[in-house]
Predict the 3D structure of the following.
Amino acid sequence: MRADNSRHLIAAAERRSQRTRERALAALRRMDATGQPVSFDSLSRKARVSRSWLYAQPDLRAEITRLRERSQPRPRAPLAPDRQRASTASLLRRLEAAAARIRQLEDDNRQLRQALAEALGTRRATRILVPIPDHDTPGKHHGETHPAAPKHIHDWAPQQQRPQHIRAGQHRDQLDG
């Protein structure tokens, strides 16, 4: 019967693995110290180890990734030429103009909401006070309002309640801008 030599084989494999690890670490330190770009490919050639072995070592893999990212310059957004860049004063004027426009639109929106609420209230009141019977009048369809009821929201609203850019009788598709 042969003697069990497996412990010698295991010890030899561990020593070989340790030497490989030491070679990889030494090569990694040299590359970092000399400012050489670090990658899995370049380190595997310098340390004479396989790339797959480097990928299989979590601590070495993390260090290679960290050094690789540190050495790569961050991509910067291309800058416009000086003559095309807006000055700070110009940007502030544009911001002020946009803020003024927003305030005007908010005011118009508030006025239009109020006008709509009043129009819907008037419409409801007209339907309650002046109902049209849907079965007594020939040719009339269910749900019609009285002929005296306003047809458009702007027909009933007093001039001072409308936003200034909306004139009497003007419909949405006729508005400027």
The mean pLDDT is 78.
